[in-house]
Design a protein that fits this description.
By secondary structure, the chain is an alpha+beta fold. It contains five helices and 13 strands. The protein has a six-stranded antiparallel sheet. Helix 4 packs across helix 5. The longest helix has 16 residues. This is RNA-binding protein.
């Protein structure tokens, strides 16, 4: 397996390892278009242009950031030392052609679905009020998830349904796919899975 590519930036200042550890780091998931449309350079891959757009935007606001590619060409995670809302807002108002979506992650865990579901339940319990609703968005790639003593969850719809059922039963919350207060995002990154529990205004959608 090819190791993930990393890029570090921050206004031209490259930080030392011990300085990185002292910072409060948050992680942003950024997804790129699968191919360029008529508004983008035809000869440039979206993931290359997308990382350049991240670099330009975050250097402009002077934050430290660290881009790491996942196993999938259209998805990266960005560690940074800034409020994710500030980063999302800057990406929202900056003209881009390759960036498709960005969402702040609450957790990145190893991919066994039992751990994914347990982590989601803890996050939702801590963040979502009893009178609020949620929806589940899930993106899985090549392989299905297998839960012990349960059916093979070989599609995003099945895993989303399983998560929604547990949250409704265990936390007594309302599942609403049309007009929810919160979004629970599950994103397979390879050997790990990114999890976000956030309000819709905290998500950047450019598609």
């Amino acid at each position: 397996m090819t190791p993930p590519t990393k890029y570090e930036g921050g206004g031209g200042y490259r930080m030392k390892s011990n300085e990185q550890l002292e910072k409060d780091v948050v992680v942003l998931l950024v997804k790129f278009k699968e191919e360029m449309d008529e508004n983008g350079p035809k000869m440039m891959k979206p993931e290359i242009l997308g990382m350049e757009e991240i670099e330009k935007t975050f250097n402009h606001i002077g934050i430290w950031f660290y881009i790491m590619q996942s196993e999938y060409f259209d998805t990266v995670t960005v560690e940074m030392d800034s409020d994710p809302a500030k980063a999302i807002e800057e990406l929202r108002k900056t003209p881009t052609v390759a960036i498709k979506r960005a969402i702040p992650l609450d957790s990145i865990v190893s991919s066994p679905p039992e751990l994914v579901i347990n982590t989601i339940q803890k996050l939702v319990q801590a963040k979502v009020a009893k009178n609020e609703s949620f929806t589940v968005k899930c993106e899985l790639r090549d392989n299905g998830y297998t839960l012990r003593d349960m059916e093979n969850l070989n599609s995003a719809d099945l895993l989303s349904s399983q998560v929604a059922s547990i949250l409704c039963r265990e936390l007594d919350l309302e599942h609403d796919d049309r007009d929810s207060d919160w979004i629970v995002q599950i994103e397979e990154l390879g050997d790990t899975t990114g999890i976000a529990v956030c309000r819709w205004e905290d998500v950047l959608i450019k598609d």
